[in-house]
Amino acid sequence: MTWQFTLSGFLIGCLVGVTGMGGGSLLTPILVIFFGFKPTLAVGTDILHGAIFKSFGAVRHRRLGTVHARLTFWMFLGSGPMSLLGVGVATWIKHHYGGAESIESYAVGVALVIGGIGLVAKTFIQRGIQPDDAPFLLTRRDRLIAFTLGATCGFVVGLTSVGSGTFFGLVMVLVFPLTLPKIVGTDIFHAAALLWVAGFGHLVAGNVDLRTMGWLLTGSVPGILLTSQFTLKVPDRTLRLGLASVLMLSGVKLIDFAGADWVIAGGAVAAAIGLAAWSLVARIGRRRPLALDSQVREGS
Length: 300
Fold this sequence. Notes:
With 300 residues, the chain is mainly alpha-helical. It has 2 domains: 3-256, no CATH class; 259-300. Helices cover 79% and strands 0% of the residues. Helix 1 packs parallel to helix 9, helix 3 (39-64) packs antiparallel against helix 6 (140-160) and helix 3 packs antiparallel against helix 8 (180-204). The radius of gyration is 20 Å and the shape is globular.
C-alpha cells in the first residue's frame, strides 16, 4: 500500500497549494479512518510530515518579507515547549493504555470538531483589529497574548496535530493589526517551526511511521509545487466551509458516540445542501451587478 499514500499526499498538497488553507488537518483522520492507523501513530506521522511540508511555504514567505519575526518568536516561546508536553501526554496514553487508543482518538476527534468550528468562524469574521501597513511594534500585552496563544495551541498540536493553522490564524486576525499576507506568512512560518519541535518529539517517542511519511511526501511536495501557481475558481468561503464540514464530520467519526453514523449522514446532507445554497446565492449576487452595469450601458 504505497501509491495510496502518495495519492493522499498529492491531494492534500494540491488543496494547500491552490487554496492556501490548512488541508494538512485532514491527514490524521485520513490515516486513522481509511488506513487503520492507531491515533498516536497517525498524529506523529502527520506532524513530522507537516514540518517538512510547511517548510517550503515558510521559506517562500520569509523571502517575500511576509513574516513578523518577533511575533513568531513570542508564539514559539510558548508553543515549542508545550508541544513537547502534548507529545509526552500522547505517548503516556499509548504506553499506559496499550491497544486501547480510544482516549487519543477521542482527543483528536474533539480537536477536529473544534478546528472545524474555528475555520467557520475564521471564514465569516473578516477582521477584529483593522490591519495597518505600518511596522507593528509588540507591546507587553501583545507579547503576553502571543505567548499564551502559543502555549495553549502548542499543547493541542503536540497532542492531536490539529490547529497549527486554524487556531493561530484566527486569533491573529482578531487581535493583531497585521495585513492578511503577514498573517498568512507569520502563521505558516511559526507552524513550520512548531511542527519541527513536536515532530522530533514524536520521532524520539517512536510515534512516526517514516516509511508512510516518505510516501506521503512524494505526493504532497509535488502537489503544492505544481498547484501553488494556480488559482481555483471556486469561491474561497465555499472551500473553507467545505473543509470545515469534512473536519467536523471526521471528528464525529473518531469520537464514535452512540448514533454517530446518523449524525455523519445528516451532517453530510446538510453540508451539501448548505454549500449548494451558498454557492447559488453567491453566484446570483455576482450576476446582479453585471446585469445592472449592462442596463446602464444600454441606457446611455
